[in-house]
């Protein structure tokens, strides 16, 4: 049976100049920005909170995908892939792992905040570095496993003029394309963001009658990270869902050579380049969220910003006895929870 090739995630066809500009901006902003975040957390923070550890891993995931950008820039400028099949699969596999790690870390942040609001005392016991380490390990293992279809379907193929090579996903049947597209969209976006939406809906419902007067800088920052990831990745996932839907509806053949298919491939190429910006925007968000800290703390502003998430150890020492007493009060009077937990919640996030 004939094989089918969708466009590579970053394609030299279509509008390579636009993709080159977008990737260059992502690399110029994201590489030093995320390196600075990693340095700030590892060097400037003596006591790293759970939130800080998640932000650290998010920055590492972003750095990993940005390190592949020079290879894609070379691909776009030369119009052919010159790094062999191993390099083809490795670069796109790193991109897949980074995408999954980022969305799973964002989901974990949302669940962490939801638990802190719904079960503050349980959350305080669970928010330890040991538990965080196991969760982070599971996220990375899951990301490496979820990205394995890239290794199966990504191959080198001759270009249109047979003078170049493209690093493209190759399928033997339309069912394989549909499976891959649906699997990526569902596991890499739809399911995680359903969890995120459910978590923040629960948080809003529980806090609508509470009066939190203290700073919520970290809470707003997490929401901004989530919205930025959604804004940069949603268009791409919509395109691959449309591609899969057209195949299921029989609106396109195996080769996908119709005008609509070509437009979708062009859109996909541009949108995946835009998605690279999601790996460079987080340091900008940190700078915006910590504007005042930037002026007062200088290069240590990221560390100061994340210190607002609190230190689990110090919270446990200060609040251990209080929590035992407060827990009994909460069990006797549901109305006491909003009054007894704001300080703990603000420090623990």
UniProtKB/TrEMBL annotation:
Pfam families: 7tm_1 (PF00001). InterPro entries: Formyl_rcpt-rel, GPCR_Rhodpsn, GPCR_Rhodpsn_7TM, Leukotriene_B4_rcpt, Leukotriene_B4_typ-1_rcpt. This is Leukotriene B4 receptor 1. The chain crosses the membrane at residues 17-42, 54-75, 90-111, 131-153, 178-200, 221-242. It is found in: Cell membrane. The keyword DNA-binding does not apply. Gene3D superfamilies: Rhodopsin 7-helix transmembrane proteins. Keywords: Cell membrane, G-protein coupled receptor, Glycoprotein, Membrane, Phosphoprotein, Receptor, Transducer, Transmembrane, Transmembrane helix. Residues 33-286 form the G-protein coupled receptors family 1 profile domain. It comes from the Eukaryota.
């Amino acid at each position: 049976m004939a094989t089918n090739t969708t466009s590579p995630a970053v394609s030299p066809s279509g509008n390579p100049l636009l993709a080159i500009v977008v990737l260059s901006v992502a690399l110029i902003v994201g590489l030093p920005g995320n390196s600075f975040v990693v340095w700030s957390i590892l060097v400037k923070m003596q006591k790293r909170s759970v939130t800080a550890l998640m932000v650290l891993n998010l920055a590492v995931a972003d750095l990993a995908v940005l390190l592949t950008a020079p290879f894609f820039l070379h691909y776009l400028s030369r119009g052919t892939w010159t790094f062999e099949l191993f390099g083809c699969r490795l670069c796109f596999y790193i991109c897949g792992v980074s995408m999954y790690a980022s969305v799973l870390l964002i989901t974990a942040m949302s669940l962490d905040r939801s638990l802190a609001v719904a079960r503050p005392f349980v959350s305080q016991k669970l928010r330890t570095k040991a538990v965080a380490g196991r969760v982070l390990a599971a996220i990375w293992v899951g990301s490496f496993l979820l990205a394995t279809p890239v290794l199966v379907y990504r191959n080198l193929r001759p270009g249109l003029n047979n003078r170049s090579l493209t690093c493209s996903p190759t399928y033997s049947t339309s069912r394989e394309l549909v499976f891959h597209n649906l699997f990526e969209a569902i596991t890499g976006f739809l399911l995680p963001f359903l969890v995120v939406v459910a978590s923040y809906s629960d948080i809003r419902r529980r806090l609508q009658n509470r009066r939190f007067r203290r700073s919520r800088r970290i809470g707003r920052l997490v929401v901004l990270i989530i919205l930025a990831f959604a804004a940069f990745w949603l268009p791409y996932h919509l395109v691959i869902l449309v591609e899969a839907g057209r195949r299921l509806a029989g609106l396109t053949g195996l080769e996908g050579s119709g005008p609509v298919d070509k437009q979708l491939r062009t859109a996909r190429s541009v949108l995946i380049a835009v998605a690279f910006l999601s790996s460079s925007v987080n340091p900008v968000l940190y700078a915006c969220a910590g504007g005042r800290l930037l002026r007062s703390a200088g290069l240590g502003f990221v560390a100061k910003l994340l210190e607002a998430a609190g230190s689990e150890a110090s919270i446990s020492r200060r609040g251990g006895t209080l929590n035992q007493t407060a827990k009994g009060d909460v069990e006797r009077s549901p109305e006491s929870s909003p009054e007894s937990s704001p300080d703990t919640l603000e420090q623990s996030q």
